[in-house]
Amino acid sequence: MLTLGGCLLTDKPEPALDIPQSYEGSSRNPRIAEAALPPLDWWRGFRSRELTQIVESAREANLDIAVAIARIVQADAQARVSGAALLPNISLDGSATRSRTSQSTGTATGGASERDSLSTTMSASYEIDFWGKNRSALRAAEQTAVASRYNREVVSLTTVASAANAYFNLLAAQDRLKAARENLASASRVLDLIKQRVNAGTASALETAQQESVVNQQRAAIPPLEQIVKQNRNALAVLMARSPESVTVRGGTLRSISYPRVTPGLPSELITQRPDIRLAEAQLAAANANVENARAQMLPSITLTGQGGYSSAILRTLLRPESALFSFGAGLAQPIFDGGRLQGNLDAQKGLQDELLQAYRKSVISGFSDVENALDAIRQTAVRERLLADVVTSSSRAFDIAEQRLREGTVDLVTVLQTQQTLYTAIDSQLQARLARLQAIVSLYQALGGGWLPKPVEASNAR
């Protein structure tokens, strides 16, 4: 029996993970790779006071985080419930009764009898956890409670990333809105020049209509951008658990946002940093414990019971030695036939265990992929932003020349229209590239699991 009991805990699947030595394109030197690991308050790296206020307000008041915290309380309580089976169950009972027999069914003399009965007893029962059934149930509940804490971290990280992205979207919309209004002003200025040429007889109504189309296009681009600004303000209000009317977001420009430098560290460290991976790991540990519990339910259960107390018909003699009573017992129960219920439960728990094992493996692999994608996105968006900055510079210079020659009457309208559209498109593309770069940095922070605790200083380095 002892040997059989020890075999219950050996059926734990191995994840069989293939962990790379480093990320592609990152430094293979561990010291360089850890030179700029994200701090716990990583959002401060963007150097925006308003963003910091929004993020910290969301962390304190977000309703999704509040729901996750409530689930932690529930999981802790359930762990205490599961742990109660490892301790004796003790109860105290007391009773006092007075009974009277019916006169019609009394004795031959026709009299009724009355009697009192007083008792107080203490009962105790305890199931010997020989096979570890109750211990595995407690371990499963404890791992579920651990998983609820990592779920809270997942929700918190998602909330912070959503707040940062919404704020950057708002800033980008404000930048694009400003650019659209400036484009509208320049297009209107060109339209005035064309109308002057029409009055002078050097331009036609067709050229006027073409430029009016450009003006109307720029005017039509403004309402959607104003809508984006409002939508992101409302999104930030929801993240901070406040009504939109009570939230004031000043915004500004993406140019005021700094690009923080962050390195991903080593892939092996990601497993301990990403809360979703730790969540999947805790859920798998709970499933392992549930399999042990299901297997132990198929084995005999041993229960000890005891009862002791006093019983008397008179109160003054209730606590005398002659009124004492007690009983002790032991029981053993072995399932013989249950229609396959216990085996079905074991098979179900094994199936759930395999499901969570594959989910854990996927979360680890997805974590590596998320980091690689974020690193590549940061590199590519940085290159794209630099190239588009050159495009904006050359396009702006070309438009200035075209506008000046239009004043002089030495350029055709087709050239002016082309330079206008090229400039407007380049400005908008540059703003969107800047937004994409910031969002790629946020994605990297999220892929790394948010901020990392600083490593403890070794004794040799602390001197």
Explained architecture:
By secondary structure, the chain is an alpha+beta fold. It has one domain: Outer membrane efflux proteins (OEP), CATH 1.20.1600.10. The chain has 12 helices and 4 strands; from the N terminus they run ααααββαααααββααα. It has helices at residues 2-6, 30-33, 49-61, 63-83, 133-200, 205-220, 222-239, 267-273, 275-296, 341-408, 413-447, 459-462, and strands at 89-100, 114-128, 301-312, 324-333. The longest helix is centred in the middle third of the chain and has 68 residues, at 133-200. The radius of gyration is 38 Å and the shape is elongated.
Q: What Rg is obtained from the alpha carbons, in whole angstroms?
A: 38 Å
Q: So what's the oligomer here?
A: single chain
Q: Mean pLDDT, nearest integer?
A: 89
- The SSE string, one letter per element, is HHHHEEHHHHHEEHHH
Helix content range:
55-70%
Number of strands: 4
Q: CATH top level?
A: Mainly Alpha
Q: Could you give a short account of the major beta sheet?
A: 4 strands, antiparallel
Reported by name, the CATH topology is Outer membrane efflux proteins (OEP)
